[in-house]
Specification:
heterodimer; A: mainly alpha; MetI-like fold; 71% helix; B: alpha/beta; D-Maltodextrin-Binding Protein, domain 2; five-stranded mixed β-sheet; 37% helix
């Protein structure tokens, strides 16, 4: 009996294609096309009146260099860079550190752990703009009112968001608060996957909670931590700390980050094609800086992964 | 197995379709179209101006064209104009969705038409510009010269038309002035009894106030008697004298939203309109003072500015940022914001939470609340000309609640043009009024090739821009259109007090040839609208003080202790920056 020839394009492949088509299309449109277009734009100039693009060489990159280092924006650029780096540092140390401790607490099923889980998850299900409004209201009036009743009249403040000394700290706290729940949940998920026999063995050996956390839990979830650290690094040039939601295009100079600057510039020139090459050049420069650092950190993390 | 695969595929397709269609593509859902009717779809910006004014024009258009068999299309004898409003009906929103938008015409806010025209998104309206309208005029003849230049940058064609002249600044409760706070022409009542001037710190050199309603009022900032600004403060010195008198009379001078502090730049805009000539103000956008010399500050000796006079051209366009008028306006704002008794009490304990519509309510109700022993009456509100429309609901509610709340005596307040002393007859200047919200009409280029829609759009635009409809829309909204036309006496008399004051200011500027379109045909302007356009949130009003960006003078003065001089210097664009960033671009 002749064996039926197996067709290459069968129903299984069709099913696979159906599933993969949409994400692939999304990847092509929103990643490959967008990035390719940005690179092309970065080397172009645009004549709005005649609707003509032309090759501009490295002029846009020279303009970006001048804008950042040789104009009245220079000091602001320094502040934005400092704020962005500080944001990453604090999110890494306080955010990741705090989330690890918190998730460990919940993981160990200590008092109120379940309740904390719900509380931490709540911000994730509330729309961002609602959360921003609630937060804004509390730091503009609620907390401020309490503070003002406790201090002498000369020390009173109008709002944490409009005070030069408190605005950056306030938006940084907001950004930490927003990302805390997600991180905690992710770490908790990773911790729950740790084989109970390992922790039980540790307990039989009489290890303390701290020893278990450092020597068992952290190594077991290292890959999750590494992912957060690597992904976090990519946000150095994109994180806006919610500044646009709070202030639209008018965030105080002290609190601005590079991500906010780039977003505001893009949003302010949404329809102005003549500015897009300059903005694209900024994006390309940021990518050139952050891409090798991110790849390096990823390699480093893989090297130090105790589970490897 | 097959079943579950089929289900999975269907689910994936549905989810994909949902994801792809979830964006707002500007689609308006309308009742099913009838075969005998031609439909014109219009979208307006959902804001303070509302949409009723255009619905009324639509109804009039329907009445004029219904029954004309086959006029717009074979077999159709009726016309239906469908007007909807959307918050995405602005430059940004239309740039994204106009190509797939089923609306044919748009009245949009924040519209830089060239951005859309460059991408061939706008329908060419040139052909109808010199058609004779029902009033015997043409649309082009109703445009100001600078509008014509600005609107024909691309291929010498018109892709957009001006609509509202939405000015910004201070609204005053003129009833308060009538109770003895107008400036008197001669003599007058010195309510502050020789107190030194808050503005100059020296002996007050301005006029005093009227003692009774029958006293002759001063000629006001324009130096002409029997005009709309009679009795208003003509110098900064007089303005602060007025504020001090209000404080003394237990009246709270000023209120603005604390939530969006860029609204305070409305005063900045209004001051520039007041103290600049048409060419001086226009030069901020055209970088061309038309051969006229403009006062610019070249440096400071201590706190004293060194002033020179320069003709502004594109080559030295950076000098517009050094205009003396800007410095004067900042000195005024510094004096205003650094005296918290002028505004802080009305802002309340939580100024940052007071939104602009709440501020409108607080303002208009303050008269009645004060009469009932709750707080003080507030004299001025910092807002755009649209506020009266925006607060219509509140005003109607108040009229039902309080006696005397109907047609309140609110007025658009002309601001002083000079710094010290007073303005005598023939010594003043006419305000150079400018629209601050960039409201324009555009047509969707996706109607091209559709003879019915093209004819509908053309006929409707001609109908809308006839004097009769411009007048109707002005009466409906109270806001003038930035075009050359007039109201009849009866129409003017029928307007509320506030609407009359807006028309007065506009007409005065129009008739004196000082109305300014804050855009130009300069490529430097067109390529950098986020830097040079007359928007309160844009960089035109930003400053870099010690290198740190400050977004508005109010925050800089009150929270960061910045001086007017430092804020002003932080606004300058250097000659080298101008050459590298703008001139060569």
């Amino acid at each position: 009996m002749a064996k039926a020839k197996k067709r290459f394009f069968n129903k299984k492949l069709l099913f696979y294609c159906c599933l993969i088509a949409f994400p692939l299309l999304q990847y092509i449109v929103f990643y490959i096309y967008v990035n390719f277009n940005s690179i092309v734009l970065a080397f172009s100039s645009y004549d709005k009146v005649n609707n003509v693009s032309s090759f501009a060489g490295f002029q846009n990159f020279v303009d970006v260099f001048n804008e950042f280092f040789n104009s009245k924006e220079s000091v602001s650029f320094g502040i934005r860079l400092k704020n962005s780096l500080l944001d990453y540092l604090i999110k890494t140390v306080v955010g990741t550190g705090g989330a690890l401790f918190f998730s460990y607490y919940i993981y160990k099923k200590k008092l109120g752990g379940g309740l904390f889980k719900v509380i931490l998850f709540l911000p994730q299900v509330i729309p961002g703009i609602v959360l921003t409004s609630i937060f804004r209201f509390s730091v503009d009036s609620g907390i401020v009112n309490i503070y003002n009743t406790l201090v002498p009249e000369s020390s009173r403040i109008v709002s944490l968001l409009s005070d030069a000394n408190t605005v950056y700290g306030t938006v940084l706290f907001y950004a930490l608060f927003i990302s805390f729940g997600t991180q905690t949940m992710m770490y908790l998920g990773a911790m729950n996957k740790i084989n109970p026999s390992i922790t039980e063995a540790g307990q039989l050996d009489g290890v303390s909670y701290m020893r278990e956390f450092v020597s068992i839990t952290l190594p077991c979830i290292f890959s999750t931590i590494a992912t957060f650290l690597v992904v976090g690094l990519t946000t150095i040039f994109t994180s806006d700390l919610g500044l646009y939601s709070f202030f639209s295009g008018n965030a105080p100079g002290e609190a601005q980050t590079l991500g906010y600057y780039l977003f505001r510039l893009t949003n302010g020139n949404k329809t102005n094609l003549a500015e897009w090459p300059f903005i694209s050049a900024i994006g390309v420069i940021f990518t050139l800086i952050v891409a090798p650092i991110t790849l390096g950190l990823r390699k480093l993390m893989a090297k130090f992964d105790p589970m490897n | 197995m097959m079943k579950s695969k089929f289900l999975a595929c269907t689910l994936a397709s549905v989810l994909s379709a949902c994801a792809l269609t979830s964006c707002d593509a500007g689609v308006t859902y309308v009742p099913e179209e009838k075969d005998d009717t031609s439909y014109l779809y219009i979208q307006v910006y959902q804001g303070g101006v509302g949409s009723a004014y255009l619905e009324n024009v639509g109804t009039a258009f329907e009445t004029a064209y219904n029954g004309k068999d086959g006029y717009f299309a074979e077999g159709k004898s009726k016309v239906d104009v469908v007007v909807t409003s959307s918050t995405s009906c602005n430059g940004n929103g239309l740039f994204t969705n106009i190509a797939n938008n089923n609306n044919n015409l748009f009245v949009a806010e924040g519209m830089y038409y060239l951005d859309l025209a460059a991408s061939n998104l706008l329908y060419d309206l040139t052909d109808i510009m010199d058609d004779t309208l029902s009033d015997g005029k043409t649309i082009e003849s109703k445009l100001y010269e600078d509008q014509q230049e600005m609107l024909t940058v691309k291929e010498d064609k018109y892709f957009s038309l001006p609509t509202f002249a939405i000015t910004t600044g201070i609204t005053i409760d003129a009833e308060i002035l009538e109770a003895g706070l107008y400036f008197a022409d001669e003599g007058g009542n010195d309510r502050l009894q020789g107190r030194v001037s808050t503005y100059t710190g020296q002996t007050y050199k301005g006029r005093y106030l009227i003692s009774s309603k029958t006293d002759k009022k001063s000629p006001g900032p324009d130096g002409e008697y029997d005009t709309y600004d009679d009795g208003y403060p003509s110098t900064y010195e007089e303005f602060f004298y007025l504020l001090d008198c209000m404080v003394q009379s237990n009246i709270h001078p000023m209120l603005f939203t604390g939530q969006s502090t860029h609204y305070t730049n409305y005063i900045f805009q209004s001051l520039l309109s007041a103290n600049s000539t048409k060419d001086e103000l226009k030069a901020n956008f055209s970088f061309d003072s038309k051969g006229n010399k403009v006062k610019v500050v070249t440096g400071f000796e201590g706190d004293q500015p060194t002033i020179s006079e320069e003709v502004i051209t594109e080559a030295n366009g950076y000098l517009t940022t050094q205009q003396y008028n800007r410095y004067l306006a900042l000195k005024f704002l510094s004096c205003l914001f650094n005296n918290k008794s002028y505004y802080m009490e009305a802002l309340g304990h939580n100024p940052a939470t007071l939104g602009n519509t709440e501020a409108q309510k607080v303002y208009e109700e303050s008269k009645f609340n004060a009469a009932n022993g709750h707080g003080k009456r507030i004299a001025m509100l910092v807002e755009g000309a649209y506020w009266y429309n925006e607060a219509k609901g509140e005003l109607v509610e108040s009229a039902g609640k309080f006696e005397g709340a109907d047609n309140r005596n609110f007025a658009y307040m002309p601001l002083p043009s000079k710094e010290t002393g007073t303005v005598n007859e023939k010594e003043g200047k006419t305000v150079a009024l400018a629209d601050a919200l960039d409201y324009y009409l555009v047509a969707n280029n996706n109607i091209k090739g559709n003879a019915e829609k093209e004819k509908l759009v053309r006929e409707f635009v001609k109908f809308m821009y006839s004097d009769a409809q411009l007048q109707n829309m002005t009466v409906d909204t109270g806001i003038p259109f930035a075009l050359k036309y007039d109201l009849t006496d009866a129409q003017y008399e029928g307007l509320d007090n506030y609407k009359q004051s807006l028309w007065d200011a506009y007409k005065y500027s129009k008739d004196n040839g000082t109305y300014v379109t804050p855009m130009s045909d300069s490529l430097i302007f067109l390529n950098n609208t986020d830097v040079f356009s007359f928007k309160t949130t844009n960089r035109m009003f930003h400053s870099y003080v010690n290198g740190v960006e400050r977004n508005n003078a109010y925050a800089a003065f009150t929270q960061y202790g910045v001086s007017a001089k430092d804020y002003f210097k932080g606004m300058w664009i250097s000659s080298s920056d101008w050459s590298s960033k703008y001139l060569g671009a």
